[in-house]
Write a structure and sequence with these properties.
heterodimer, A: about 270 residues, two-stranded antiparallel ribbon, B: about 1000 residues, alpha+beta, about 45% helix
Chain lengths: ~270, ~1000
């Protein structure tokens, strides 16, 4: 749960989210604006602390880590790509320097050899642009450069917020290709916040966040409702729209084992 | 990381350049204090060397006399103290030693002039200081040379041989041989290369003062048999070695030599030199400058630090997102700190050494004198360190949040609430500090020393903060008012100022610019007025000429003769007062009102009334008594010695003073006997009348129990000059109060006349009874509180005075002292004598003919000073020179102010263009938004200028008269003149206004570009 305060009132941004993401998985978080997607990704990245509940990334309980430990985690284990490519890049520094700077903590902490910045840029399809500065790149290139910075330290988890929101379809495809390449070559777990159903479809697993909780999940082209931790199930909006609030359902199990919801109207 | 920081600097070079310049300005402000003080020191040395006579650089040891029982060539060995003296002189390591050995000789001239004695001297280095008109330097044994004046007088020249006999003064006042005659060859005739140099202020062989001397060499004197010689051990300080830096060393050398001398002779014989006084004067100028300079620099330094703080703060705030990027990657604190601070600290730190070097150049241009580029010394390094630390602190405080803020907050662009609270606390603290400074200075008479040198800056800052806080709601009201009336542009400007985040800080920073300049203008104007008043008071008249060695009476008569109408010239004489006695100046009050330079500072009395108070015109002024006047011819006195006075031991004489020439004439009646009562004397020298100044009783023979005589009458040519009743009036007489009380006369008036007696009369003592023909106690116009009822008269005697008027100050005197009438003062003297500081005050319109007539009357005029020339002289004092520092400070202040304005405009550009676009969307014409830009930034400048002026006045109220101007406080006006003060600020405000217009134009262009982009 995450609660924040606006003009003296408490706002519950997320509540009852029960989500498990396996290592190496690619997950798209979708949902309407204000549903809590970005908050969830900030909590996963340790940029915010949950007001209640538990978030575990790898072996770490994010809520119990100190600021310094969270800092170290972001420098080594978790890559964060903020919404808007420019917010991830130092405009005055070359791409090589941007990637190098993002590797500093990891290099100092783990003492292992990290991939060369050029190699990382190659991975996201920016070969030959190591000396270019962000303002000279196209929007798509900038977004891939932001991805390069996010994976610079070789994190196990990459959190990406709206990577395709301001891109055309070609740019979107390049970014998605880059994400898939990262996932494939590095086995990096990738969580992407997006509004774009196409992106969700391309990533395989789509988790829909509605009203601060996981509303549905789509796998292999099929949409599933999800039983929340408190036992509730959110119906898909199109079905829910047919029944006004207060509508009574009869829940019954069929002989073949399937569960049937029967409205009293029917 | 270095590459990243360099990339930051390259990307935002404008911001970096601004910080670099601000850091330079801060460093210059701090370093210029010691640098400028050094320049003032150099200027003070220059001034002293230019004004002091050459003798000021000379150190003279007491002359040594060597006497041998018989003629010898080993005479120096007979001067027992010579080794000790030589040792003492050797301690003067910076000085050039000059030893002169001198004997007297006769025989240079022939015939009846052969008996004239001359000095024969050998002096170190003489041949280097002369040019030989004939022959050469006398380097060989038995060789000598003559100064050209002596060669001309004696008609001797190179190649002549003279036989000289050493002589010494004999007991009978003549000369007797001191050794056998010796033959010398004259090998040269010379003249001095530079007769005015210090070398020739020692024993003078040129004859400028006294007779010229024959010059030989030491070898000749050492092989010349004689019994007596005088050895002078002197030392000269080369001008080039008199530098401010060497003053402590010179003092040490003088003290060491003095100590060595006193070891040899504890009786108190010491070095004869005026150098310590000169060094004192130089250091005093430096002290005055050092007291004022930090006060002048502090506001500028505060301004620089404040602008640096704002610039760094805005810079760091604008790149919070970048810092967030780095933080979100888990960067360790050093990496984050470098990225946060490096971009700001690199130009700021680079500015410190640049400013340090630049200061020397700037000071050499701005400072008076020819000090050249000031070398960097320890004090300057220390000041640069202080500037650097302050700059660093200002920057670090500005970026403290970005160094420690959590990542999530860095990624947001919302100012934290606690920041507003901190700002309010800082503003409150600033105002409280300013208040504390005002209370300290006004209520507790605090001085602007130590930490309080920052006092005026703190008060300006506090007053600017307070007024800015007060102005904010007013601007809001003005904005709403304008809006209601449809005046969009002024409304936008006023509301922008009232509601802009940090508008108080913005106003304070710009107000600090005009406040600093206003305070500087006030200080400069008040000091200028003070120096003018000081010059007026010091000189006393629009113009004054000094007179060389004049008798007091002669001076008075000569000036009156040169200007009989009393329109242009007035004689003035000072009393020979010591340091702890109030100064007394005697003026010729018959013309005082016409000539004196009067000022309303002295009081409400007019100069005419002051003159009347000193001496009422007409007979009444004499206290109902006319001077007792006699002329040439027989003078008869009726005198009755008392019965206890032995016959023939008491001698009575009259001291007469010529009414026209002021010369003294003595008329003695001889010794008195009991049988005789009528005595005659022949007066001579009083053809144009003399006044009776005093009666002298003297005793011949051994001490007696009592001297006494009754004066009954004085007659001349059958007329009674002084009757018995007049004699008997005790108020006509005054017993001088100088000397032991036992030597004072006693007097008693009665029917028989005036009985005067001395109960313990001693031989060879003159007992004086002075005639009083002026009001006594003498009327005096005083200023300040005099310590007693007596003042020093112009002859050094103490006389009683009556306070005719009391003023706040007096011309030629100052804030404490007295003015008396010169004629009265002279009549109160026992005898004529040399005037102390004789001078003639002149009216501004004095024609040259009066000066000519003064010379024709025999007055040697030495210097001609006007108030303006004297004021110009005071401009070269340490404090006055230090005030010129404000010129440099003003330029820097305006530059920093422009930098601050540019910073504000740059910071505001996003919010401004957004706002103007909104106005356009709502239908506002481009003209309206353009006008709003002009009104906004122009409004900032004008509003801040007004606030700054108020702040400057507040600071002036608190500290103005505490500034060490080096001028008597009573001469300083309490407030500056408005036009001067406003003019001092106006130029700067104009420049800032132009800057504001340029900023407004730029904003307008940005709005237009953005709109076209939208279109």
């Amino acid at each position: 749960m995450h609660i924040y305060r606006v003009e003296g009132s408490d706002v519950v941004a997320l509540s009852g989210v029960d989500l498990s993401i396996s290592s190496g998985e690619m997950v798209a978080l979708v949902g309407p604006s204000g549903s809590g997607k970005s908050t969830l990704i900030s909590l996963l990245g340790g940029l915010m602390r949950p007001s209640a509940g538990r978030i575990a990334v790898g072996g770490y309980d994010i809520g119990k880590l100190s600021d310094a430990e969270l800092n170290r985690l972001r420098g080594t284990e978790i890559g964060v790509v903020l919404q808007g490519a420019a917010r991830n890049l130092l405009p005055y520094a070359s791409l090589h320097r941007n990637v190098w700077l993002a590797q500093r903590r990891a290099a100092a902490t783990r003492g292992i050899e990290l991939a060369e910045p050029e190699e990382i840029l190659d991975l996201v399809g920016l070969s030959g642009l190591a000396n270019a500065k962000p303002p000279s790149l196209t929007a798509g290139q900038q977004q891939r450069a932001a991805l390069a910075v996010g994976i610079a330290a070789g994190p196990g988890l990459l959190l990406v917020d709206e990577p395709t929101s301001q891109l055309d379809s070609a740019g979107r495809d390049e970014v998605l290709a880059a994400l898939q390449a990262v996932n494939a070559k590095r086995d990096t777990t990738i969580v992407v916040v997006t509004h774009d159903p196409e992106v969700g479809a391309r990533l395989g697993r789509v988790v829909t966040i509605r009203d601060g909780r996981v509303g549905a999940e789509g796998r292999d082209g099929q949409d599933f409702a999800v039983v929340a931790g408190d036992g509730t199930i959110q119906l898909p909006p199109d079905i829910l729209g047919e029944f006004p609030p207060g509508t009574l359902f009869l829940v019954d199990r069929d002989e073949d084992g399937s569960v049937r919801l029967e409205s009293e109207r029917s | 990381m270095i590459a990243v920081i360099l990339a930051q600097l390259a990307a935002r070079w404008g911001q970096a350049a601004t910080l670099y310049l601000l850091s330079i300005a801060a460093t210059v402000a701090a370093v210029s204090v010691p640098a400028y003080a050094v320049a003032v020191d150099h200027a003070a040395v220059e001034r002293e060397l230019a004004e002091a006579d050459a003798g000021s650089l000379v150190v003279i040891l007491p002359p040594l006399s060597a006497t041998a029982p018989s003629p010898t060539t080993e005479l120096p060995s007979h001067a027992e103290e010579l080794p000790a003296y030589a040792d003492a002189r050797s301690r003067l390591k910076s000085f050039v030693p000059v030893t002169t050995t001198q004997i007297q000789v006769q025989g240079l001239e022939r015939g009846n002039r052969a008996a004239l004695e001359y000095n024969l001297m050998a002096r170190d280095g003489l041949c280097r200081h002369v040019t030989f008109l004939e022959g050469r330097c006398p380097v060989g044994n038995r060789e000598a040379a003559l100064p050209s004046s002596l060669a001309k007088k004696t008609r001797l020249g190179a190649g002549d041989t003279v036989v000289l006999t050493p002589v010494r003064s004999s007991e009978d006042g003549g000369w007797e041989p001191d050794g056998p005659p010796v033959s010398l060859t004259l090998v040269g005739v010379f003249r001095a290369n530079d007769p005015g140099s210090a070398y020739w202020t020692l024993e003078d062989p040129l004859g400028a003062v006294g007779d010229p001397a024959i010059v030989t060499n030491r070898r000749t004197l050492e092989t010349l048999l004689h019994q007596r010689e005088t050895i002078y051990l002197d030392a000269i300080l080369p001008e080039r070695l008199l530098t401010p830096e060497r003053i402590p060393q010179l003092r040490r050398e003088l003290q060491t030599a003095e100590r060595r001398l006193s070891q040899q002779n504890p009786s108190g014989i010491s070095l004869l030199t005026r150098l310590p006084e000169m060094l004192d004067r130089i250091e005093e100028q430096g002290r005055h400058a050092r007291a004022l300079l930090p006060i002048a620099a502090a506001p500028l330094l505060a301004l620089c630090w404040l602008v640096i703080h704002l610039a760094v703060g805005h810079g760091v705030w604008s790149r919070r997102q970048e810092l967030g990027i780095v933080a979100v990657r888990g960067a360790k604190w050093p990496t984050r700190a470098l990225l946060v601070s490096g971009e700001s600290l690199v130009p700021l730190l680079a500015g410190v050494p640049t400013g340090l070097v630049l200061t020397g150049l700037l000071v050499s241009v701005a400072a008076p004198g020819k000090s050249g580029v000031i070398a960097i010394d320890t004090e300057q390094l220390l000041a640069a360190g202080v500037a650097g630390v302050g700059t660093l602190a200002a920057a670090l405080i500005a970026m403290r949040r970005e160094l420690s803020t959590p990542v999530a907050r860095l990624l947001r662009q919302v100012p934290p609430r606690s920041r507003r609270l901190t700002l309010a606390a800082v503003e409150g603290l600033t105002v409280a500090l300013g208040l504390a400074v005002v209370i300290e200075l006004r209520a507790f008479d605090g001085e602007l020393v130590g930490i309080m040198v920052a006092g005026p800056a703190v008060v300006i800052l506090a007053a600017a903060t307070l007024v800015s806080l007060g102005a904010k709601p007013l601007l809001n009201v003005a904005g709403r008012w304008s809006l209601r009336r449809g005046k969009v542009a002024p409304a936008v400007a006023a509301l922008y100022l009232a509601r802009r985040p940090g508008s108080v800080r913005l106003l304070v920073v710009l107000a600090l610019v005009s406040g600093t300049l206003g305070y500087a203008a006030a200080a400069t104007d008040v000091a200028s007025q003070g120096r003018l008043a000081e010059a007026e008071q010091l000189l006393g008249a629009p113009r004054a000429v000094e007179v060389r060695q004049a008798d007091r009476g002669q001076l008075l008569h000569a000036v009156r003769a040169a200007d009989p109408e009393g329109k242009y010239a007035m004689a003035v004489v000072s009393a020979p007062t010591t340091g702890d006695e109030p100064p007394v100046v005697a003026v010729d009050s018959t013309r005082f009102a016409r000539i004196v330079q009067w000022s309303s500072r002295y009081g409400t009395m007019s100069p005419a009334r002051v003159a009347e108070a000193l001496r009422t015109p007409g007979k009444a002024s004499l206290g109902a008594r006319e001077p007792v006047v006699v002329r040439d011819g027989e003078l008869t006195a009726e005198l009755i010695p008392d019965s206890l006075t032995p016959d023939g031991v008491l001698e009575v004489s009259l001291q007469l003073v010529s009414l026209t020439t002021g010369e003294q004439v003595i008329a003695s009646f001889g010794s008195l006997t009991a049988e005789q009562t009528t005595y005659q004397t022949e007066v001579s020298g009083c053809a144009d009348q003399c006044r009776l100044a005093a009666i002298t009783l003297s005793m011949s023979g051994a001490q007696t129990e009592r001297l006494g005589v009754t004066f009954q009458s004085l007659q001349q040519g059958g007329e009674v000059v002084m009757s018995t009743q007049e004699f008997a009036d005790e108020k006509r007489w005054r017993i001088p109060e100088e000397g032991p009380i036992i030597d004072q006369l006693h007097m008693s008036g009665g029917d028989d006349g005036l009985l005067v007696w001395q109960p313990y009369a001693r031989a060879n003592v003159d007992y004086v009874l002075q005639a009083v023909d002026v009001p006594y106690p003498v009327p005096a116009v005083i200023a300040g509180r005099l310590p007693s009822k007596e003042i020093v008269n112009i002859d050094g005697d103490r006389v009683q005075f009556t306070q005719a008027a009391k003023l706040d100050g007096l011309p030629g005197v100052g804030a404490v002292g007295a003015l008396i009438d010169l004629e009265y003062a002279e009549r109160l003297t026992r005898e004529p004598g040399a005037a102390v500081s004789p001078r003639v005050w002149l009216a501004a319109d004095t024609p040259d003919s009066v000066i000519t007539r003064l010379r024709e009357e025999g007055l040697g005029l030495t210097s001609d000073t006007t108030i303006e020339s004297l004021r110009a002289e005071t401009e070269r004092t340490g404090a006055a020179m230090a005030l010129h520092f404000y010129d440099l400070a003003a330029v820097l202040t305006v530059l920093v102010g422009l930098g601050a304005l540019a910073l504000v405009i740059a910071v505001d550009r996003r919010i401004w263009t957004r706002g103007m676009r909104s106005l356009h969307i709502q239908g506002a014409a481009e003209r309206t938004t353009a006008a709003a830009s002009v009104w906004s930034y122009g409004g900032i400048v004008v509003t801040s200028a007004l606030i700054g002026l108020v702040a400057a006045l507040g600071a002036w109220f608190a500290s103005g008269l505490r500034l060490p101007f080096g001028v008597e406080e009573s001469l300083l006006p309490a407030w500056p003149r408005w036009p001067q003060m406003v003019a001092g600020v106006a130029v700067a405000v104009l420049l800032l206004f132009v800057g504001a217009l340029a900023g407004g134009w730029w904003q307008r262009r940005l709005v237009r570009v953005r709109r076209e982009g939208d279109g």
